[in-house]
Amino acid sequence: MDFNIHRWYLCPAREARKSFNDPSREAAKEKKLATVLDAGEIGRALKRIAHEIIEHNHGLDNVVLLGIPTRGAFLGERIGKFLAEIQSPVPVGTLDITLHRDDLRMRPPRPLLPTVIPIGGIEGKDVVLVDDVLYSGRTIRAALDALGEIGRPRTVQLAVLVDRGHRQLPIRADYVGKNIPTSASESVRVLLDEIDGSDSVQILSGDSK
């Protein structure tokens, strides 16, 4: 079942997105400490999240998934496929938060990524935001601001592949693939086949992100 979509921004070339988000750009600064999730474990974690979304919402009739680019968008698509396999298809879109980040002036310029809202919008819907890593909570705060400019959902829920702790804002995830305790000097790198050619989650030493 296909859902029509509204595109709020033009989607830049895939290669441009990959270049900006390529983990190899930081490889020289960081040292790999451990691989904490492999491809199979990532798949099982996302499937479990899909089951939890169904249980928590008593079905999928009112559910909309919005992935936060870049990796959250691909994770949202994967969860959407699991939901379709388990019960029924749901609308899946993306939500760019770039202009709502509170560190926008402290980071290098980056291209706007696509915000794609399914036909039917988010008014009165149970919106599940999807991201790869939950850290300080500032990305999700920006996502809530971006969402508020589009509509007023009935509920907003959060699904993340990894929760690494160190919250700076009162934000928590409703669905977590894996809790990974880390130090502030470590970083978590999520590799996805759609961008990186393979799936894994790694802990790195070096400057925290």
Topology:
Elements: E1 5-7, H1 14-21, E2 31-38, H2 39-56, E3 63-67, H3 71-86, E4 92-94, E5 116-118, E6 126-134, H4 138-148, E7 155-163, E8 175-179, E9 186-191, H5 193-196, E10 200-205
Parallel strand pairs: 3-4, 3-6, 6-7, 7-8
Antiparallel strand pairs: 1-5, 2-10, 9-10
Helix pairs in contact: 2-3
**Topology as H/E string?**
EHEHEHEEEHEEEHE
Q: Whole-number average pLDDT?
A: 85
Q: What is the total domain count?
A: 1
Secondary-structure class: alpha/beta
Strand residues, percent:
25-35%
Architecture (CATH level 2) name: 3-Layer(aba) Sandwich
Q: What is the global morphology?
A: globular
Indicate the percent of residues in helices: 25-40%
Any overview of this molecule?
This protein is an alpha/beta fold. The chain has a single domain (5-12, 39-184), classed as Rossmann fold, CATH 3.40.50.2020. Helix content is 27%, strand content 27%. It contains 5 helices and 10 strands, in the order E-H-E-H-E-H-E-E-E-H-E-E-E-H-E. The chain has helices at residues 14-21, 39-56, 71-86, 138-148, 193-196, and strands spanning 5-7, 31-38, 63-67, 92-94, 116-118, 126-134, 155-163, 175-179, 186-191, 200-205. The strands form 3 sheets. It has a 5-stranded parallel sheet, with helices on both faces. Helix 2 packs across helix 3. The chain is globular and about 45 Å long. The model is unreliable at 1-28 (pLDDT under 50).
Tags for this model:
single chain, 209 residues, alpha/beta, Rossmann fold, five-stranded parallel beta sheet, three-stranded antiparallel beta sheet, 5 helices, globular, disordered N terminus
